Amino acid sequence: MLKSEKFLEDGPTKYGVLVLKDGTVFEGRGFGACAETWGEVVFNTGMVGYVESITDPSYHGQILVQTYPLIGNYGVNPQDFESDRPWIKGYVVSEFTPFPSHHTSTKAIDRWLEESRIPGLGEIDTRALVKRLRHYGVIPGLLAVSEKPLRLKLLLREAISLPDPNAANLVAEVSTRDIHVYNPEGRKKVVLIDCGVKNGIIRSLVNRGACVIRVPENFPAEKIMALNPQGLVISNGPGDPTKCRAVETVATLFEENLPMLGICLGHQILALAAGARTYKLRFGHRSQNQPCLEVGTRRCYLTSQNHGYAVDVSTLPSDWSIWFTNANDKTNEGLRHKKKPIFGVQFHPEACPGPTDTGFIFDLFLEQLR
Question: Is 180 in the active site?
Answer without folding.
Answer: no
